[in-house]
Design brief:
By secondary structure, the protein is of the alpha+beta class. The protein contains 11 helices and 7 strands. The protein is globular, with a radius of gyration of 21 Å. Mean pLDDT is 90; it is low at 30-36. The structure holds flavin-adenine dinucleotide.
């Protein structure tokens, strides 16, 4: 039977009406990179989990994932319809679950064994398991292929030794996508393999890192002779680079889809601060509104728009908008009353937005990709 988009949209509307407040851009704070309060650091994860569990129970999670893998088996039009409806409601940020939902689930669906698909994908959509991405190392970020964590073959699996860093949500995760070197003699990109590893194996140690926002969302992860069973291999041994590039492509698309318009909230802040008639403020707000509209259109044209373009534009937009929020707050951005959660959220947004230019590939790397692969310009040096 064909997909009935109108009926599906009505079903989504009914769920959101029953479970979420309608979005009021003049009242709801911008979601920022990762929502944060000084009081309860785990609140964002709990909120994301509760929301996702509700969607799963209503059959509204994993919409376009095949049914045999635990999804709903619907066409891409269902995703678009769902997103159109969701955009009208104040939903929690899903960033704490995004590695599982948007990176691990599609990667496992594409490259995983049948056993891995049935074991992991439904648990990801049901928000039972949080996932993290164990790619970056102290000496391997932009140049990821130079990573050194080693997974040496032994009977029944691999022994992993090395260190990962900047691993978002590792402290909450049940599983991680681990990129490690299985063959040292091969050229950099070859000889890598991807694993879906449980996060509490003997020999693993997770150490949270304190950020300038005051939060601790990412971590160092140490592997000290950790035995990883061979069933954890995701894709073929030595094919890790191809699999990891698929994962990273999903991460850059995610950034583009994540942008939510904030200009109305900023205009309200300008009114409250008594500067809504200031020509410089008005020009800034207009610039933000235009860029947000372009991002929205580009997200609708995805995948025709290169993911690197959306990633780069999204990072710049977040920084412009959050800097505007801090400017409008003036001195309060530096010193505000304890418990002034609206100001606290805006300041956290301002500080956290710097990370958009680094996480998921830096601005400079996105520019290189666009120059070389989209514009066809010669490679640098
Ligand atoms: C908030 C946040 C969350 C993150 N979460 C995760 C995670 O969950 N899992 C994970 O694995 N990693 C994560 N990362 C790490 C992230 O992927 C890396 O920080 C990023 O790839 C950059 O690597 P690096 O920090 O080693 O910087 P480097 O690669 O050392 O870069 C340093 C500077 O040199 C520039 N540069 C490097 N190479 C070039 C080049 N070829 N041309 C021009 N300029 C260049 C960069 O743009 C940058 O300005 C996260 C980072 C942040 C900020």
């Amino acid at each position: 039977m064909g997909f009935d988009e109108a009926a599906f949209t009505t079903r989504c509307e009914a769920w959101f009406v029953a479970h979420c407040e309608p979005l009021d851009p003049e009242r709801h704070d911008p979601p920022g990179l990762i929502p944060y309060t000084t009081v309860d650091h785990d609140a964002p994860l709990r909120a994301a989990r509760a929301h996702q569990r509700g969607l799963w129970a209503a059959g509204l999670a994993g919409l376009c994932m095949p049914r045999e893998f635990g999804g709903q088996g619907l066409p891409p039009a269902a995703d678009a319809a769902f997103n159109r409806v969701a955009a009208g409601y104040a939903v929690p940020s899903m960033i704490p679950l995004s590695v599982g939902l948007s990176l691990a689930a599609p990667t496992i669906a594409e490259f995983g064994s049948d056993a891995m698909r049935t074991e992991h994908i439904p648990r990801i959509f049901a928000a039972d398991d949080v996932w993290c991405q164990l790619f970056s190392e102290p000496d391997a970020g932009s140049d990821l292929a130079s990573l050194r964590a080693a997974a040496d073959r032994v009977a029944g699996g691999y022994v992993v030794t090395g260190q990962k860093v900047w691993t978002s949500f590792a402290q909450h995760s049940a599983y991680g996508l681990l990129l490690a070197r299985t063959t040292r003699s091969e050229a950099k990109h070859r000889g890598l393999s991807l694993f879906a590893v449980p996060m509490h194996l003997p020999g693993m140690r997770i150490r949270p890192l304190k950020e300038m926002t005051g939060g601790t969302h990412f971590n160092e992860v140490f592997f000290d002779d950790v035995f990883v069973p061979e069933e954890c291999l995701l894709g073929a041994e030595g094919e890790g680079w191809t699999v990891a590039m698929f994962t990273l492509g999903n991460e850059r698309n995610l950034t583009m889809q994540r942008t939510r318009p904030k200009w109305k909230r900023l205009a309200e802040l300008a009114r409250r601060s008594g500067v809504a008639a200031d020509p410089v403020v008005r020009a800034r707000l207009t610039d933000i509104a235009m860029r947000e509209e372009m991002q929205r259109w580009n997200a609708m044209r995805s995948p025709a728009v290169p993911a690197s373009m959306g990633k780069l534009m999204g990072a710049q937009l977040e920084q412009l908008a959050s800097t505007t929020a801090a400017d409008l707050l003036g001195a309060a951005a530096m010193a505000h009353e304890v418990g002034d959660t609206a100001t606290e959220a805006a300041v956290h947004w301002f500080l956290g937005a710097r990370a958009n230019s680094i996480a998921g590939g830096t601005d400079e790397v996105q520019r290189n990709i666009l120059a070389e692969r989209v514009l066809g310009l010669p490679r640098m040096g």
